[in-house]
Amino acid sequence: MYLMKNLLFLLFITLYGVSVSAERNESTNVTEKISEHHGIRLASWRWDEYSSTILFNLMIILAATFKIAFHQIPYLPKYIPESCVLIILGCLAGVIIKYCVHFSETHPFPTFTSDLFFNVLLPPVILDAAYSLYDREFVSNLGSVMIFAIIGTLFNIFIVGGLLRGIFMVGLMGRTQELSLLECLTFASLISAVDPVAVLAIFEEIGVNLGLYFLVFGESLLNDGVTIVIYNTVTALDEKGSHVVGLDYVLAFLSFFTVAGGGFLIGIVFGILSAILLKFTQNSRVIEPIVVISVAYFAFVLAETFHWSGIMALIGSGIVQKRYAFPNASNSTRNTVKHGIRTLSSVSDAIIFLFLGTVVISKKHDFQIYFILWTLLLCFVIRFMGVFLLSWIINMIKTKPISLREQFIMAYGGLRGAVGFSLAALISDQKPYKDMVITTTIIVIFFTVFLQGSTIKLFVNLLHIKRKNDKNESHSDVINVKLVDQVMGGIEAITGNVSKYRIINLLEYIDTHYIKKFLLSHNSLINMEHKLRDISMDEHYARLYGPTVLASNSKFSTICKEDTGLINLKHSYSNEYLINNLEDQERKMSCQSLEKIFEDSPFELYKRRFCRRDVNFDDHVLKQLDSSKRTAARIKRRIMEDEAKKKFFGSDYKELNYSKVCWKDLESKTTAVDCIKREYHNTRKRIKNIRMKTE
């Protein structure tokens, strides 16, 4: 899988380089090419034609090589983010491109433009992030995320912009060219854009808990839509100058909701469209990935055509596709889309950081030290003020408060990136302060990515922030969560209180009885039932044979490998079907996964509570397993006796209820053995029902 991702990575870069070269070649006269390559040759040197494509692909290959070498160096990935290495590599490439390599005017080196960023590089990152937002933890924190993304962003923009204007008026900016209030707000809107690319790259490496991850990442994702809307609004007001009237402010306020809401609505509509299309692809599975990706990108383009938020369109489309379109698709389609979008997102990340490095060398800079220092100070301080103030308000309402340590990480994790730089590049060339704004934006990006991004891991460790739990959520855990939702919804219905649980139950009822019946195909519903059955059986086998498999890594393995040991094991269990499945490894369970499953199981609790430290646990387990084998043998004899009595006495004989067998006469009464006894009966009944259905 890793090799496939690398091949997709290089294939995408090659196609991108070829497309860039093709765009440059369109302006070349065809007749000149024919005359230039006239004649038969064994080989020719066409460096001027392909130099930009070759160097761009070479830069990407070197970036992939550096990424591989970066993760092989001990301790380096723990302290330095990967994005920093890519930016440094981009700076080196910028030096080589500017001072060491000559390009023809018809085939220049590709440059970083706002259109390239917003229309090509950013959509894969946003779509990949939208798929990951389909999570219960994100939904439970959605209110907090919206407060930080909307109110927090507006707080940062207007406070930073107002204070910058005040500093200009007081005269603390030195000889820096003075900016008006709208120009200060324009700069504040672009510098307040928390970049999801930088945040995603840093926080995925850290591996913080999902609650904090979705608070920071969700805020950065929705923050972009807010900052772009404010940026476009303030820029439009600045262009009108003194002709601004009261109606313009009203329209600016309303556009804030229409741009974000309209884009999200378009994403939902096209997400539903992709789910409907995938209902009819049972006989043409090969086109399913194209449908999913192309419909999502078309939603982005259409939203941008209406001058609405394409980012919000991708978010809405991605969430709806994950909920309704993916169940209609095949497993191979889901894997293809998942890894394909993840690969494109990784490629886009690398290209963005590389281009940021090359921009440092290629762009014309205007260093205004006072403006740079005041901007860094205000961005840092106002970010902390906004996070702590809004967290204080949220904690008065929220049941699970945001701790001070998590608030610090949220404030410190407000990294800037290519979004702010791309908005700065959109400023008209007629504005005399454009170079100063671009230079200041680049320095703020470098300050947050290098300084804050490199030290945030240190603060996460020092503050003992809870990390992400790698343990997969079992089916029983999901059932327990649903049960709690239903019980809490019932309590709220009895008390007459309307809260999130009643709303969740109402939405799930509508979703199950109406939406899914319309959007999901009948085969997908059947596949979901089969998947549920397989998951239940896997967990059942893990609980039944987990102690045996875990013990088989030590002394018990030598017993099982012997013929006599295997015969005794088969003799202990009456059902040879289960033993053969275990022996043939049809249920492939690794010891690590079993240890995670049994982390809080009765077996592990028994181990921690009853096993003395001075006793070898392997011997202890063998003793208990031997007792359980004797118990199973007794059960088998009891079953055989009852079956013989039933045959002898005829249909009048009633079979005993083995779930109510008295175990007082048995020797062992430990928790582990009792668990095996219960599982024996449940498994026997389940296998009997399965055989009856198959026959």
From TrEMBL:
Transmembrane segments: 54-73, 85-104, 116-134, 146-168, 180-203, 210-231, 251-278, 290-320, 340-362, 369-394, 409-427, 436-460
GO MF, one example: potassium:proton antiporter activity
InterPro entries in alphabetical order: Cation/H_exchanger_CPA1, Cation/H_exchanger_TM, NaH_exchanger, NHE-1-like
Domain Cation/H+ exchanger transmembrane: residue ranges: 63-461
One GO process term, biological-process aspect: sodium ion import across plasma membrane
Location(s), subcellular: Basolateral cell membrane
Extent of the signal sequence: 1-22
Entry membrane topology: Multi-pass membrane protein
Pfam families (UniProt xref): Na_H_Exchanger
Keywords: Antiport, Glycoprotein, Ion transport, Membrane, Phosphoprotein, Signal, Sodium, Sodium transport, Transmembrane, Transmembrane helix, Transport
GO CC terms, sorted: basolateral plasma membrane
Family listed: Belongs to the monovalent cation:proton antiporter 1 (CPA1) transporter (TC 2.A.36) family.
NCBIfam families according to UniProt: b_cpa1
Protein name: Sodium/hydrogen exchanger
Organism from which the protein derives: Lepeophtheirus salmonis (Salmon louse)
